[in-house]
Amino acid sequence: MGLLRFLRPGIGQLATHAPRPPALPGGGGGLPAGAAPIPLISVVIPSFNQGAFIEATLRSLIEQRYPRLELIVVDGGSTDGTLAVIRRYEHQLAWWVSEPDGGQTAALNKGFARATGDIMAWLNSDDLAAPGALHRVACHFLEHPSCQVVYGNRILIDDTGMEVGRWTIPYHSPRVLRWADYVPQETLYWRRAAWERVGARLDERFRFAMDWDLVLRFSAAGLEVRHIPAFLGLFRVHREQKTSSQLAGVGFEEMHVLRERCLGHRPSRAAVRWHTAPYLVLARARELVDRIGRRGGT
Fold this sequence. Notes:
Blueprint (H helix, E strand, L loop, with lengths): L1 H6 L33 E7 L6 H9 L6 E7 L6 H8 L5 E4 L5 H11 L4 E4 L5 E2 L3 H11 L5 E9 L5 E5 L6 H4 L11 E3 H6 L12 H11 L4 E12 L5 H22 L5 H28 L2
Parallel strand pairs: 1-2, 1-4, 2-3, 6-9
Antiparallel strand pairs: 4-8, 5-9, 6-7, 6-8
């Protein structure tokens, strides 16, 4: 059992080790010399009663000092301390609203309808952008004009901000993506042209897997999707979190729907494991290399 636990990759797990202070990546550096124009990045933050976390979310973006950042907060009518936090930062927001809505996916569509950025993303109000993430993403798009969509690796944190795991993605695989969602949503960024190519909306039939659906649509449209081998986001695991509370119900059903759409049938769990096993083995190898590198750097 100890060997099996050691060999199991972090991808797909919400915790892999005891809480410890996060080893955050360094800043992404500046933009390429002479880069012009600097792309405007629009980040939509959907929110509902996350007053304990939303300030850290906002600061993780603002403190990167990216020169052209458009922040949009769409709150569903929070009744905790969320609005006090939003008002404290509203001078740094392009737009915000707090009113009842149709749920997270509807809130995101409302925010993206207001977004004007060249690059687009969303960050849930309990997650964080990693230091330097915005500069890394902008640089990648500037240096790779054909690339339309990027994502990176994720650090898992608990409700106190302590690290409890990592997802080290080995590479982008359109084939594996049809079987399992391994793209960390808080690290996902795309060009406006890609968004418009796939309809400029998230599918509001999905309450849990709308991010997987979006990446699958990008892939089906033939857009170039790339993985950046860097930690771009921190995903918070806590009791009130939707991933933890809805995964076994609506989450699994929506994943079944997407697999059936891509594969033509609903595969068994054994089939999913079989078709993703080589990818996960390589992911575990990359995690071990990352761990050795961090130890060597201390």
